[in-house]
Amino acid sequence: MSEVTAMERPPEPDWPAMTDEELLAYREAENRFRASSAARALLGDPDPSATIDWQQVVLPDREIPVRVYRPTAGRDGDGDGADRAELPLVLHVHGGSFVGTAVQCDWANSHLAAHLPVLLVSVEHRLLAPETPLSDAVDDGWDVLQHVVRHASQWGIDPARTAVFGESCGALISALTAIRAREAGLTLKAQVLVNPAVDVTESMFDYASMAEYGYRPTRAVPQLRVFQRLSVPPGTDARALSPLYADDLNGLAPALVVVPTQDAVADHGRRYAARLQAAGTPARLTEYPGARHAFLTLPGVEPQADAARAEILGFLRASLAA
Fold first, then answer.
1. Reduced to 3 DSSP states, what percent helix, strand and coil does the chain have, rounded to the nearest 5?
2. CA-CA distances (angstroms) from residue 251 to 55, 197, 255?
3. DSSP string of 224-277, one letter each residue
4. What pairs with residue 139 in β-bridges?
5. In the chain, at which residue ranges do the beta strands (DSSP E only) sit?
6. What is the pLDDT along the chain (322 residues), one digit of tens a residue?
7. Which of 124, 184, 201, 225 could form a disulfide with 238 if both were Cys (CB 3.0 to 4.6 A apart)?
8. Residue ranges of the Alpha/beta hydrolase fold-3 domain (predicted)?
9. 19 burial class (0-12, 13-18, 19+ CB within 10 angstroms)?
């Protein structure tokens, strides 16, 4: 594949026929586009009331880039000019699985950082590849959360007011992070799961929404099959990577599950919200009729992105207030 300029987006590949080399070349080209100024017409502009920078989370065995969003100094998001030494923490995980970058989420993330206000840390997790399964990305999300909470004073956050937030594959990672947090005794105030894909088992495609929207408005099923193949190498327990099949969903952080209706994985979100509720975990399911899968990251073409961002802000504000 030829090198892509900042003004060009690579064509969608032939997913079933794509080689591993073509996958990696497409990823590089697509992520360069998503991080370019040309993509802002689709992805939206960052909120000017937030500062954004890249940092490295240094762990014993690896370094993980994170995109950090802070309210601009001297602002608290409500316009009264008060500074807050210890902000709540929102750990964010972007979607995309084998292609994607935290930059594509600047529009929503910078707004939340500025107007809640919070410190929002978005994990540039390892992307799925033949030698990088989903479990690696899941570990990245959990390890960054633990690191920031353990070093709360360095990050300027109040670890007692922490939430997780993700979209698509990032919502899957966030849901698994919430489960790990409960098991480790780390209390979360909230989890926000947007268009979550929470089933990577053999039943992943056995939903009415998959039949209805698997090939319209986009060809989601071929792409999801690549996602499933990369997520679960032979011999892997797919249930361990599928929050929908977790043995115990009781005692988790209250959840907001956001489901766009024109989405192949819409029933994943509906089913997960129902399982949370049945287990006794507070869960609010909100559907956005006519919205497509990645709508929250596409305010330039998805009119309901504004309403979803406002709902997420309100839910997190209430959850992190105490």
1. 45, 20, 35
2. 32, 21, 11
3. HHHHHHHHS-TT--GGGG-GGG-S--TTPPPEEEEEEEE-TTHHHHHHHHHHHH
4. none
5. 50-58, 63-71, 87-93, 119-123, 157-167, 190-194, 255-262, 283-292
6. 344 444 589 999 999 999 999 999 999 999 999 999 999 999 999 999 999 999 999 999 999 999 999 999 754 444 443 345 699 999 999 999 999 999 999 999 999 999 999 999 999 999 999 999 999 999 999 999 999 999 999 999 999 999 999 999 999 999 999 999 999 999 999 999 999 999 999 999 999 999 999 999 889 999 999 999 999 999 999 999 999 999 999 999 999 999 999 999 999 999 999 999 999 999 999 999 999 999 999 999 999 999 999 999 999 999 999 6
7. 201
8. 90-296
9. exposed
Q: Phi, psi at residue 253, to the nearest 5°?
A: -60, 145
In the structure encoding, which two tokens stand for residue 237, read together? 């327990």
Look up tokens 């989370």; give the residue.
Answer: 57
Phi, psi dihedrals of residue 13, rounded to the nearest 5°: -75, 170
15-320 topology per CATH = Rossmann fold (3.40.50)
Q: Amino acid identity of 168?
A: S
46: number of CA atoms within 13 Å, CB side? 24
